[in-house]
Design goal:
By secondary structure, the protein is mostly helical. It is built from 30 helices and four strands. A two-stranded antiparallel ribbon has the order 1-2.
Length: about 700
């Protein structure tokens, strides 16, 4: 609705067009035109100014259940439609055909409804069915209609953005901008994003640390087996010792104690041989395992808004996106009776009663909430809207002014005030208030104007509880003390989240294996063969010209008759060993992201890549987002574009392989530099001898 200048839009005589009329007659004619315009405007806004009749649903709370309902859909579910503003527009019968999208959009506009949540989700589901059937245009039309039926429903925008990502990138960016704006305004979307982000961060970090440690154990399994073989030689034959060493490496993983405990023990035994970065990963894994039993408290705290059996929210946070129903309002009435000092329950009751046209209950609930939140601009704005619906315009103006004083940036109060001024024919004040509202929040004004009809009537803008208020409640220290631990379904049944006994076992086994590994290393140090890098100890190493060699290299060196020939044989043996290792390393690096970097002790980058791969593979492994605060599909229910997922996989593998080949080339250059003959300048002794000659 556009606002005219300060005068009413009535006809006006011109002296130039009627020069024969005298000044007095002109003034009489002008006065008559003004009276006629005033009468026309009064007739136009009569429904808005007239109070509800005593026998109407607006004045009789007992008749709320008699409001018209839409027909049940194919699944048999009945969708309830919230009532319109009392006195703003007459109650309209909803369409009987749930497959006619245009009829529902027209009904929403004519009835001045801000949202139809149930119908929106129905058409969204039909849009997905049409997309799977190959009907792209029909699918886009239905999903767009779902977004119009419920502007706060974020999933249609995400779905359209994923569809338009390759067809029309500008439309995709526009949809993502709408999503960002919805997230900025909606507490439910904010906490859903934060809660799922916390879950996937913890999950990815744990999987990344565990997988990195497991790969390190795989890379250093020869050190582990050598530790056990040398000690088993005292009891069994060398062949049996090798078999038992492999058994000790594999059996703990098959014993049913999970993966984490064997990795903790093996990494502890390898502690003296690990590098600084590998030790950092081991310490981080220990801390993650010790904190795992307490992760349920953090997840439970983020799940507080979903709990309908615990205060102070009692599930009120989800009421914003729900369709009105008598049963829900009755439940809120009982909660308000049991908890008369809970402002969240009172606000929710006022919100539901306002949607159901129970204006008396809405006014009472909002006034009680205002007594607990005296400076809350949103309570003041909603209470003023109820007063306008009751026909009390002057008290409503005072409430709007109090809301603006409490929050000068509140665009809804300015917009609603402009509507009340328009009904009172104060067009200059209405135009100023509307301009101020448009400057503060143009999207809100545009959305409300889109709900207007041909008669020029615009619905008033109600406001939900501020996201900052709900966040303070969720993060309150007293509420955290009363939080019950809750685990996502994917974490349940695993030994790592079984409780404090597991944390104690991790601490005991981790420290015990670390001390045992240090003791074994002091008693029998392990070192690499100076030629091929194979692990040897003091017993199996053989000295050749002050070089500690493995038995295979020592045997090759024993066949040489000169040092130069020995170096050639050792180089041939080293190249043969390195060729097999390089083939195995390259194969695993191409299959496992981050493996090639771990082979060259680049631990931190490898951990990050493994964690990213774990996140990307989560949907295939049944790991889904555990939090869905919004009714129906939420932020993470099938709205991710496959193009984005494929691009992420390509980026992970590209980073892994490029890092591996870079490290391999650097290592090869260093090895070539070591093998190249060293040319030195003539020594000082040679120079002196030449001079003496």
């Amino acid at each position: 609705m556009t606002f005219s200048p300060s005068r009413p839009p009535c006809g006006r005589a011109s002296h130039d067009g009627d020069a024969s009329v005298g000044p007095r007659a002109f003034r009489v004619r002008q006065r008559r035109l003004k009276v006629a315009a005033a009468i026309a405007l009064l007739l136009m806004f009569a429904p808005a100014l007239a109070p509800a009749e005593p026998g109407s649903a607006a004045g009789d709370p007992s008749r709320v259940a008699a409001l018209p309902r839409p027909a049940a859909d194919a699944a048999g579910a009945e969708s309830t439609v919230p009532a319109t503003d009392a006195g703003t527009a007459p109650a309209l019968a909803p369409p009987s055909d749930l497959s006619d999208l245009n009829a529902w959009l027209d009904y929403k506009r004519r009835a001045h409804l801000s949202a139809l949540p149930d119908e929106s989700r129905l058409f969204y589901r039909r849009g997905l069915i049409a997309e799977r059937a190959g009907q792209d245009q029909e699918a886009i039309r239905l999903v767009r209609g779902a977004a119009e039926l419920d502007p706060a429903f974020v999933t249609p925008h995400l779905t359209l953005a994923s569809w338009f990502l390759t067809r029309d990138p500008s439309q995709a960016l526009l949809r993502y901008a709408v999503v960002l704006d919805l997230v900025r305004r909606s507490f439910l979307l904010q906490i859903e994003m934060v809660a799922n982000l916390v879950f996937f961060t913890l999950h990815g970090l744990f999987v990344g640390l565990l997988a990195t440690s497991l790969v390190i154990v795989l890379l250093r399994q020869t050190e582990l087996r050598h530790l056990w073989e040398e000690r088993l030689h005292r009891l069994v034959s060398p062949g049996s010792a090798r078999v038992w060493a492999w058994a000790l490496l594999v059996l703990p993983f098959a014993a049913g104690v999970g993966v984490a405990l064997p990795v903790v023990v093996f990494m502890g035994l390898l502690w003296p041989l690990l590098r600084a970065r590998e030790r950092a990963v081991y310490v981080a894994l220990l801390l993650a395992l010790l904190a795992a039993p307490f992760s349920g408290h953090l997840i439970g705290r983020l799940a507080t808004p979903l709990r309908e059996d615990r205060g102070p929210l009692f599930g009120i946070a989800t009421l914003q996106d729900e369709a009105w129903s008598p049963a829900r309002q009755a439940s809120l009435q009982r909660l308000a009776t049991e908890h008369p000092d809970d402002p969240f329950v009172l606000f929710g009751l006022g919100w539901s009663a306002r949607q159901g046209r129970d204006l008396a209950t809405a006014e009472t609930a909002y006034r009680r909430a205002l007594a607990l939140w005296p400076a809350d601009a949103r309570v003041l704005n909603n209470l003023a809207n109820v007063r306008v619906a009751q026909g009390s315009l002057d008290p409503a103006i005072d409430l709007y002014r109090r809301a603006i004083a409490a929050d000068p940036a509140d665009a809804a109060a300015h917009f609603n005030l402009s509507q009340v001024y328009t009904r009172q024919f104060e067009y200059r004040a209405a135009s100023e208030a509307a301009a101020r509202a448009s400057a503060l929040d143009f999207e809100l004004v545009k959305t409300q104007q889109a709900l207007g009809t041909e008669d020029g009537v615009l619905p008033l803008a109600d406001q939900w509880i501020a996201p900052a208020t709900l966040w303070r409640t969720v993060l309150d220290a007293d509420a955290a003390a009363r939080t019950e631990p809750v685990l996502p379904v994917v974490w349940r049944g695993h030994i790592e989240t079984s409780g404090l006994p597991f944390a104690g076992a991790v601490l005991v086994l981790g420290l015990g294996s670390l001390m045992l590994g240090m003791r074994w290393q002091r008693a029998m140090p392990l070192r690499p063969c100076r030629n091929c890098g194979r692990v040897v100890c003091r017993r199996c190493a053989q000295r050749r010209r002050e070089l500690a060699l493995c038995p295979a290299c020592a045997e090759q060196e024993s066949h040489a008759e000169s040092p130069e020939f020995a170096r050639m044989l050792l180089a041939r043996q080293r190249a043969r060993m390195e060729r097999g290792r390089r083939l195995m390393r390259t194969t695993l690096a191409a299959l496992i992201p981050g493996y090639g970097l771990l082979a060259f002790q680049r631990v931190f980058r490898a951990t990050f890549l493994i964690a990213c791969a774990a996140q990307l593979a989560a949907p295939w492994l049944g790991v889904t987002a555990p939090f869905a605060y919004q009714t129906g599909p939420g932020l993470s229910d099938g709205t991710a574009s496959p193009i984005v997922a494929l691009g992420a996989w390509i980026a992970v593998y590209a980073a892994s392989l490029l890092g591996y080949f870079s490290q391999a080339a650097s290592a090869a250059a260093q090895a070539a530099a070591r093998e190249a003959p060293v040319r030195s300048r003539p020594s000082q002794v040679t120079q002196v001898t030449a001079k003496a000659a």
